[in-house]
Amino acid sequence: MSLTRRHVLASVAAGGAGALTGTGTAALLGDTETGRNSFTTGLVDLQVEYWLVDGPGAVGGIDPSDPDGVVDGPRIDVPVETLDDDEPRGSLLVRFALPQPEGGVNNPASLWLRTACPEPDPLAEFLELRLSYATAEGTVDTTIAAGSLREVADQFRAGVRLDPANATDENGCLTDELFVLVEYDLGLYVGEGTTSLPLYVAATQCRNADQTANPFPAVGETACPPGYVCDCCWAIGKVEIDDGGFTVGETYEFTEGIVDYGLYVTDTDGDDGVAFELVATDGGVAPPLCEARVKGGRNEEVYVRRADTYGTTTDSLDGNTDGLVYTPGNLSNGRGYGISYVLVKVCAPEVGRDCPEDLAESANSGDDRDRGKGRGR
Q1: Burial letters for 219-242: b for 16+ Cβ neighbours within 10 Å, e otherwise?
Q2: In whole angstroms, how far apart are CA 261 and each of 142, 254, 287?
Q3: Cβ-based neighbour number of residue 361 at 10 Å
Q4: pLDDT in tens, 165-214
Q5: Contact between 276 and 313 (Cβ < 8 Å)
Q6: What whole-number distance in Å separates Cα of residue 254 and Cα of residue 245?
Q7: Domain boundaries of the chain, sorted by first residue
Q8: Of 304, 307, 295, 252, which Cα lies nearest the Cα of 277?
Q9: DSSP 8-class letter at 14
Q10: Where are the annotated segments for Disordered (predicted)?
């Protein structure tokens, strides 16, 4: 049976594993670090305000004269309502505007955003984040960045210039106001916790200056450290396949398990071998593979995650052959059976002493005779 994300999260919570549960608020766009507000000269004043909204289409209901909050200083620190299995997603609209001088005109400015790495934590890996240019009426123009919170932090860590065509001049300089919609979703996160995305803003004058000069200090090349844990090997879905096998370039949504996830096939070897990537078919974040079970004939071949490896493709599994995973061999003729299904399990954190309940079932439950051995092709 396929389940919606919300139904899955609710059933997981009922089993004792909530999703960012608690009272009060969690600081998504908050700062847990200090000493990061050092900028170059040439900065200009910038007004930053925000509204907590319900997503695209609801933005048009905001009162431009009555924001939920005003940012004071270069750090954007926005309270975000608690997320849980009943409310797994939320969004906010941020307006950047140049002060209107009395009796004068605005001086165009380059607008820059920068992040800092979140604390290594599973929530930073599973929390799906999207930043988009938007209008005050709720129309989303283009996506600025999307991915897990850690992935977005990596993209913005050195500083990114914002220059949408609907709010900037021919030189990419802000002349009036700019709206950015921030959307966040718990995705497949299971557990309790808080995280943050430190976000900093700077505006530099465009006149008599290099509009493309980054006002933020240089950062090191080291990427934000991952925060995955693999306490639990959680079966989230199965793809059953008819005779003929998989086709390269096709995405196969789960026939059993959670909706909005599936397998994107990158390679095949006859009808008994396949290489794939676990993907979120709605554009969200896919968690790392913990195990893949490939059934052919009566048995399964079981491929487990390589130690200290977190990946969404089959080349991260022990026993793969050039990324391919196979069914068990047919002892009578040495060839493999055609694939009847692929079941995937992903890494998930343990909450207390509980792991989430499996959402797809193996025909060989409890039979690990071939665990991680591979076919050796």
Answers
A1: eeeeebeebbbbebbbbbbbbebe
A2: 24, 6, 10
A3: 12
A4: 777 788 888 887 889 988 888 888 887 778 888 788 888 888 777 888 88
A5: yes
A6: 15
A7: 15-205, 232-348
A8: 252
A9: H
A10: 355-377
